[in-house]
Amino acid sequence: MILARLRARWAQIARPLHDTGAGVTVDRRHVYILPTRYGYLFAGLLALMFAGAVNYRNNLAYLLTFVLCGVGLNAMVQTQRNLVGLGARLRAATPAHVGELLEQPVRLEGGHRARNGLCLSLSGAVHCLDLERDQVCDIALVVDAQRRGRFQPGELLIESRYPLGLLRAWTRVLSDAHTLVYPRIETGSVPPPPGEPDHGLRLSGRGSGDEEFDGVRGYRDGDPHRRVHWKAVARGGPWQTKSFAGGSANRLAISLPADLELEAGLSRMARWLTDAERAGQDYALALGTLHVEADHGDRHRDRCLGAMALYPDGI
Hints:
This protein is of the alpha+beta class. Helices cover 29% and strands 31% of the residues. The chain folds into two domains: 15-180, no CATH class; 212-310, no CATH class.
């Protein structure tokens, strides 16, 4: 009972700094410090030296013991000060597919003093660095994306053993930043989507006989350059993309395969979507109650992959 109360009390005291998006500044209340194994050896050595000085009544031994004790106490102060005032901010990472490496961006601000021997740890990724006074440093901690869905980086551990390695000071930062981990892209040869010919994805016309010019629209990221209205661009006009009608036969309909388990089916859908996007082909998505009209481009791709990442809970 007493142990449970102590653990609960420690959990309240040792709460991490909460980064809601604007970043945090480390204060003294959130810096924790303990001796390293070398610190314990150093303390044991001081105890032996003090015992010898008392036993032999040697003033030089007293002097050396107290000087070394002062060095240890000063190291404790310097180790804590190395973290106090440090600014940290975690930002949302770029989405990745399962099995890929996800780069979690972290920004550190040195503040009014230099920071030496900082080590950052997050989900198994470790990065060590030094900061000059008033320096702002952006780093990326590489994390393996293992599970589909919403990825939250968890607690960022910042620690230091500067200057002598006798003590370890650390603080923790918990961020609200999150990103999506898309389904794994199936590799190898895959069968075409239902209703598609056996030779694979069909390119969307590009002026084929079953498509008719339907006008122009604003250019979107990911539109194929062959459909850009170059004459208008050459005249100094805005970027526009030619659109065609009558090519519904060339539009891909992506849905969850009924003969595969959920993760395998989503993996195949991600492969179909990726191949269609690379080919510049319009594709529609049907997943549960969600239906996305046929289109292509970066925004359309991210919307479809995001729905697949959160399926079925996020739809």
